[in-house]
Amino acid sequence: MTDHLKLTSSAVLIAGLCLFSLSCDSDYRLTAARPDVDPADVTQCPFIPIEGTRLSQYECNPVFTNTDEGWGGDVGSVGFHVTEVVGHPFYQMWYTSSPGGYGNYGMGYAVSADGTEWETDPTNPQFVSEPGAWDQDSVAGQVVVWDPIESQYVMTYQGFNLGNQQDPADDVWGLGVATSADGRSWEKHQANPVIDFGDYELGDDELFNVMFLGSEPSIKIKPCWPLTMTINERGAFRGYLAASRWTDIIDQSSGLTDTPASCDIYSMAGIDAGTWVIDDEQPLLTGNEIYDAKGVTSAAVVELEGVQYMFYIGFEEWFQSTGTSGLISAQRMTLNLATSEDDGVTWVKDANNPLPVNLTEPGEISNVGAQVIGSRIHLWVGDNYEGTSAIGYFYYEPAIAPHEAAFN
Amino acid sequence: MLKPTTRALLRTASVVLLLSLTGCASNAAPVTACDQLCDQLVDECGYPAFPDRISCLEGCLYNETEGADTDAHLSCVDEASCDTFIIVECENQHGANSND
After folding, report:
1. Which of the four pLDDT bands, split at 50, 70 and 90, describes residue A18?
2. Helix or strand (DSSP H, E) at A271
3. CA–CA min distance A1, chain B (Å)
4. Which helix (H) or strand (E) holds A109?
5. Which end of chain A is more exposed for a tag (fewer CB within 10 A), N or C?
6. Do B6 and B37 have their domain in common?
7. Which residues in B lie closer than 8 A to residue A28 (C-beta atoms)?
8. What is the pLDDT of residues A306-318, one digit of tens each?
């Protein structure tokens, strides 16, 4: 073999080895990376940016309306959770439904591999109204978290029993807790209601003393309803509820103001799922803007990159319904955002509140759920879709600048 | 008739090609639990949560760095037979945030 041939053969050999190296490279390119899937990559419809916000909305909303399961009716209250299956979100939803009126409710469960197409559990409803129970007339505002220490789901909810449905004196209202190992079979906590709102009432004598003798009420706040709760990786619970100051309630009762006191946000610590302590000293967030003047009906709190985000439904007015136990309810409801950079001690309302997602004017947004997935906060917002209560799907991107107007 | 030099070159090229093919075959990553898990989730069940198989594999490898027991996870997913309600619980029992 000549030197030239040896040289050429060597060149071919080296080129071949390079080719070999490149051709095999793909076998080793995979890295252990936490996925951050763009939701639009896995859904049938795109997400549309909402001008002036960091929000995008699913173009084919709503994503969940009626169960069509042969029980209940339209979807009522909704609680969301996400389990990341090998780093990819699988969505879970627990929802109440009822043929109408108080009582006779059921709790359904559904899952989705893309957040838009939902598969309802064939064993629904997972639990139903129990006659005579403290929560026989309603379970609502449910929030579900996964407790990694106890390896179980924990659900908190507002329950009530309206008694004879005429006299508020026999009503029972409170915070209920239920746990489940699989999301299907739920066991209600034996100490339910773990917060009995009746424990925060003032007796007639004390009311008289406060109203006419100027003494301080022994109880600072009266709960309106629970809002949401969170759990950290160490299994520590933190809750949020809406409550009114007794001094404000008494001012209204005395005729000093003509509308019910506002339902501001207070925090509470969960010693465990069944033991909660309300911090009644100071509200975390008060209704000092038009959009939350009368308080907050629903909230979801998540943490991303050291910042806590509270999406909440603020409302402007009370509505006095005639009939059942003289209940009052919220109206003119909008979605709003507040953030905290000191672990939830102080909160700052977003300058762009209210977030322009409500479908009706005035707004009829009923609830909000939020979950952090990768770099985004996924949101589910209950609203009035052409006369039907249904759930819309959105996401919020904290790291981006607000979306600019689209140019045509 | 090929020249001797051309024949030599062709022989070398053939050896290189053979080496490449056999080299790739022998160096290809063995079928891992992550491969099998993603076979189930992406190919068998066809869950849209996974934009592609690579994303699934990367997530699985990441879970392993976080302490997931992929073999046990795979066994659970196998038994789930694409029942999404059970698939979710397999993650809770054997995934990165489980107590396994």
Report:
1. very low
2. strand A264-272
3. 8
4. strand A106-112
5. C
6. no
7. 29
8. 999 999 999 998 8
Place of tokens 């490149």: A22
Number of domains chain B contains: 2
Could you tell me the domains of chain A? 35-396 (2.115.10.20)
Q: What is the pLDDT of residues A90-112, one digit of tens each?
A: 999 999 998 877 888 999 999 99
Query: Is residue B38 domain-shared with residue B21, that is, in the same domain?
Result: no
Q: What are phi and psi of A241, to 5 degrees?
A: -140, 160
Q: Are A27 and B12 inside 8 Å of each other by CB?
A: no
- Angle CA A175–A393–A102, to nearest 5: 35
Using an 8 Å CB-CB cutoff, list chain B residues near A231. Answer: none
Q: Which two tokens stand for residue A398?
A: 């904290």
Structure tokens at A87: 């780093």
The two beta strands, A275-278 and A264-272, are antiparallel
Asked if B84 has any chain A CB less than 8 Å from its own CB, the reply is yes
Distance CA A354, CA A336 (A): 5
The segment with the largest mean pLDDT, out of A6-10, A103-107, A150-154, A253-257, is A150-154
Task: Give the residue numbers spanning the domain of B41.
Answer: 33-94
ipTM given for this complex: 0.86
| CB atoms B38 and A86 under 8 Å | yes
Which residues in chain B touch residue A4, judged by CB atoms under 8 angstroms apart?
A: 5
Q: Which of A190, A184, A193, A265 is nearest to A228 (CA)?
A: A265
Taking each helix axis from N to C end, the angle separating B4-27 and A3-25, rounded to the nearest 10 degrees, works out to 20
Does the pLDDT value for residue A114 go beyond 90? yes
